[in-house]
Write a sequence for this structure.
């Protein structure tokens, strides 16, 4: 048994309307953004989406985070227009941004920065995430590189659905490049297989 999404969205819309009646416009706006963010995730989670849709969803996530953290962080999205029609799995960008906040800039009280850049490079689309957070030690990086070498990407490619989980779990948890993957989108210091 699970909550009916229509019930959830109707409830959020009702709360938003009530907030507007009470002149709580910021609360209403936050409810509307949250509803749009949840709707995208519930409607698209098993679908292939475009980078443009992912960017739109990412902007909703950023708006929510700005309500949470205020002006402590700055977010920048720089996308080459010819990349917007790229087909990709749903929810690739948001976990990367959330990871940059939680493990990079989350402890900063001011001047935190996350930049997401998207560009074409030969036959690959490069999605770079960069933050000015705490980083990792050389030892942590070496341990993670050793773990990345243990992932069998050729076997994972035969298991199309599972590859997304295997590699994205690795990317989300460890955030480093996995150069053995084929048919990849490079995500800054990370890589994610999305198929050709």
């Amino acid at each position: 048994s699970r909550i009916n999404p229509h019930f959830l969205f109707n409830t959020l819309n009702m709360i938003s309307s009530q907030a507007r009646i009470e002149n709580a416009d910021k609360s209403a706006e936050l409810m509307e953004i949250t509803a749009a963010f949840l709707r995208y995730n519930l409607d698209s989670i098993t679908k292939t989406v475009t980078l443009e849709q992912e960017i739109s969803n990412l902007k909703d996530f950023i708006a929510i985070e700005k309500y949470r953290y205020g002006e402590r962080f700055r977010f920048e999205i720089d996308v080459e227009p010819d990349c917007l029609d790229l087909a990709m799995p749903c929810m690739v960008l948001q976990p990367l941004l959330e990871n940059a906040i939680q493990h990079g800039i989350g402890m900063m009280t001011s001047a935190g920065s996350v930049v997401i850049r998207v560009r074409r490079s030969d036959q690959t689309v490069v999605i770079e995430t960069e933050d000015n957070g705490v980083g990792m030690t050389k030892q942590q990086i070496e341990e993670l590189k050793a773990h990345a070498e243990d992932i069998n990407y050729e076997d994972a490619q035969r298991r199309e659905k599972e590859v997304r989980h295997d590699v994205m779990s690795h990317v989300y948890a460890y955030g480093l490049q996995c150069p053995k993957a084929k048919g990849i989108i490079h995500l800054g210091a990370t890589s994610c297989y999305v198929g050709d």
Remarks:
- The first strand starts at residue 48 and ends at 50.
- Strands lie at 48-50, 73-79, 87-89, 112-121, 124-131, 184-187, 190-193.
